[in-house]
Amino acid sequence: MKTVLKNIFDFYINASIHVGFATLSLVLLTYYFSHLKISYAVCGLVFFGTIFSYNFIKYYSVFYSRQKQKKSVYYILALSVLSMLLAGLCFLLLNRTTQIIALLFGALTLLYAIPVGKLKKNLRNLSGIKIYIVSFCWAGATLLLPLLNADYVLNTDVLAKFIQRFIITLLLILIFEIKDLEVDDPNLKTFPQIFGVLKTKLFIVLLCIPFYVLEFFKTGYYANQWLVNLILVAVIITFTYFVNPNRNKYFTLFWVEAVPILWLFLSLSIN
Predict the structure, then answer these.
(1) Containing domain of residue 239, as a range?
(2) Last residue of a domain, which of 113, 139, 165?
(3) Tens digit of pLDDT for each residue in 147-158?
(4) Is residue 79 part of a domain?
(5) What secondary structure does DSSP assign to the chain, as a single string?
(6) What is the pLDDT of residue 119?
(7) Can you give the pLDDT at residue 186?
(8) pLDDT digit string (tens) for 87-115?
(9) Does the pLDDT value for residue 217 go beyond 90?
């Protein structure tokens, strides 16, 4: 029984379902803070699109090699195809502007995984820009898509939310980079590879300041959001303190990845 549960949990993590719930949580936060009616088409697009895109990025080379794989990989392939179809169906239900923006993010995902040009490099392998691409896509997909589909007027408040969303994604990626320091290709020029673990941790702590302060520049402020974000910052700093290259993989793949889910839970519970 223990083995079965572990296999299910591993599939949940490896098939990117957990990260799908993380991005979905950020979409739901957008609707919550913007006082908008939830669009299940947008939620479905982001959730299933995340599962498909992350699996595409992680397993593109595996599927392309056409070598025999473990059964679980074929299950992930089946889930990815299903997610692609469901994301496509949700895409058709969006308005034209949202569809165009969604296609731009989709194109970035393809370029992130598929080598292009004479150098045969993808965006993932271009030194130093990986974290900014991922942060931009997360912020855009979880904030701009819901707002644009609701014909929400983009203003300075949205800009503050976008920067805040960009920062929190960046924070989580930097924690991942510390954990993956010993396995990442040196050519990636990740933040810990260039500046070391200690300076990266200090940078994460410093980034928590603008993330927290930006809350007070947003309209529609919730009275207890200062407490929610303070707890969130404390959790991120705690993860930062304990992360190292020798940590168990679930430390980042489950616990750190769950920070957006925690943000949604705290916002709904405390406000």
Answers:
(1) 155-271
(2) 139
(3) 999 999 989 999
(4) yes
(5) -HHHHHHHHHHHHHTTHHHHHHHHHHHHHHHHHHT----HHHHHHHHHHHHHHHHHHHHHHHHHHT----HHHHHHHHHHHHHHHHHHHHHHTS-HHHHHHHHHHHHHHHHHHS-BTTTTB-GGGSTTTHHHHHHHHHHIIIIIHHHHHTTPPP-HHHHHHHHHHHHHHHHHHHHHHHHTTTTS-GGG--HHHHH-HHHHHHHHHHHHHHHHHGGGGSSS--TTHHHHHHHHHHHHHHHHHH--TTS-HHIIIIIGGGHHHHHHHHHHHH-
(6) 47
(7) 79
(8) 999 999 999 999 999 999 888 877 766 65
(9) no
Q: Give me the pLDDT at residue 121, please.
A: 57
Of 88, 106, 139, which residue sits at a domain end? 139
Residues 125, 164 share a domain: no
Query: Is the same domain home to 111 and 85?
Result: yes
